[in-house]
């Protein structure tokens, strides 16, 4: 079977209260993505082979510190299945990005998922949908951070622990949201061990998905097993207005020295701030994305840790 039966909802345990909670609280729901047949190892192996090189993110993690060591990899001559096997026994992280742009059957699935959410949540209108696949090694971590758009995480295989922190200035200062939006930092956000006392934790199992409020900081820790997860992103008018306000505030802090700009996103000031956001973009002062200039390793099916280093030229 290659496509989801659209007569059957992808979320199987939706309750009336979820329409109130969606987007405002972390909620865990059960899903049937696996029944689409698009996320078996074989299907994902083929997907990896189809993935344009610039959309295939591959990083290795430092064994001693668990931190990403900013070593970037490539598939090389490996098959997609070999890559998944290599990640299963190595210390790596693969991000198959923007799948809907180059694999139409996944776009169809993505659109049907958001059509379902829009049918379930009155007034919800989403756009700029994005779907990616994350394949990560046992015990891999994603460090404390927040995202600029609506996010959900769908578990396919393996188990991961997700820590979701309260959406407040204590856990993520507006200044740091601005930094993310202005793309001034690719670093982790400031994190203290005691934050965990205030986190809600979820052990996400296959067939479960998690969504959380905009800008809620989170971090992820794989259990000791290969993890295959799907990420979906979306925007709404509210998310866009919030983006414009924080973005505009970031510009105001930087150009006008305003220290405590408002983060309300109603009223006329939104338009002023959105205008300054556009202006800032026009000025071209944003740093560019994560363009990888050099690949440090490639997948190696015969290597014990699944990779071999590429000699510097
Ligand atoms: Fe995230």
Topology:
Elements: H1 18-21, E1 27-30, H2 41-50, E2 56-61, E3 68-74, H3 80-89, E4 92-96, H4 99-102, H5 104-120, E5 127-136, E6 141-145, E7 150-157, E8 160-164, H6 174-181, E9 200-204, E10 208-211, E11 218-222, E12 227-235, H7 237-255, H8 269-282, E13 297-299, E14 307-309
Parallel strand pairs: 3-13
Antiparallel strand pairs: 1-10, 2-3, 2-4, 4-5, 5-12, 6-11, 7-10, 7-12, 8-9, 8-11, 13-14
The structure holds fe (ii) ion.
Please supply descriptive tags for the structure shown above.
313 residues, Jelly Rolls, binds fe (ii) ion, alpha+beta, four-stranded antiparallel beta sheet, ten-stranded mixed beta sheet, 25% strand
How would you characterize this protein structure?
The chain has helices spanning 18-21, 41-50, 80-89, 99-102, 104-120, 174-181, 237-255, 269-282, and strands at 27-30, 56-61, 68-74, 92-96, 127-136, 141-145, 150-157, 160-164, 200-204, 208-211, 218-222, 227-235, 297-299, 307-309. By secondary structure, the protein is of the alpha+beta class. The protein has 2 domains: 18-235 and 283-309, Sandwich (Jelly Rolls); 237-282, no CATH class. The strands form 2 sheets. It has a 10-stranded mixed β-sheet with strand order 1-10-7-12-5-4-2-3-13-14. Strands 6-11-8-9 form a 4-stranded antiparallel β-sheet, with no helix packed on it. Helix 2 (41-50) crosses helix 3 (80-89) and helix 7 crosses helix 8. The structure holds fe (ii) ion. Residues 145, 147, 151, 218 line the site of fe (ii) ion.
């Amino acid at each position: 079977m290659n496509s989801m039966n659209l007569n059957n909802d992808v979320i199987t345990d939706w309750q009336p209260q979820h329409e109130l909670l969606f987007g405002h609280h972390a909620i865990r729901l059960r899903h049937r993505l696996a029944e689409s047949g698009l996320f078996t190892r074989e299907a994902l192996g083929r997907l990896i082979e189809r993935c344009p090189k610039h959309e295939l993110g591959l990083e290795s993690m430092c064994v001693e510190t668990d931190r990403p060591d900013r070593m970037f990899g490539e598939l090389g001559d490996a098959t997609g299945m070999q890559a998944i096997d290599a990640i299963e026994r190595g210390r790596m992280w693969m991000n198959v990005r923007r799948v809907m742009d180059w694999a139409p059957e996944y776009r169809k699935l993505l659109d049907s998922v958001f059509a379902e959410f829009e049918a379930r949540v009155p007034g919800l209108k989403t756009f700029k949908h994005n779907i990616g696949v994350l394949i990560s090694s046992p015990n891999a971590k994603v460090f404390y951070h927040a995202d600029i758009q609506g996010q959900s995480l769908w578990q396919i295989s393996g188990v991961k622990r997700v820590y979701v922190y309260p959406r407040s200035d204590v856990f993520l200062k507006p200044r740091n949201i601005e930094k993310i939006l202005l793309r001034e930092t690719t670093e982790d956000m400031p994190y203290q061990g005691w934050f965990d006392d205030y986190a809600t934790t979820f052990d996400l199992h296959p067939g479960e998905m998690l969504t959380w409020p905009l800008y809620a900081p989170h971090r992820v820790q794989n259990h000791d097993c290969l993890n295959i997860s799907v990420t979906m992103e979306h925007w709404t008018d509210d998310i866009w207005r919030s983006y414009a306000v924080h973005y505009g505030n970031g510009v105001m802090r930087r150009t006008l020295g305003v220290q405590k700009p408002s983060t309300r996103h109603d009223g006329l000031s939104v338009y002023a701030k959105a205008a300054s956001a556009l202006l800032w973009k026009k000025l071209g002062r944003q740093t560019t994305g994560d363009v990888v200039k050099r690949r440090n390793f490639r997948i190696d099916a015969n290597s014990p840790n699944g990779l071999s280093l590429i000699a510097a030229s």
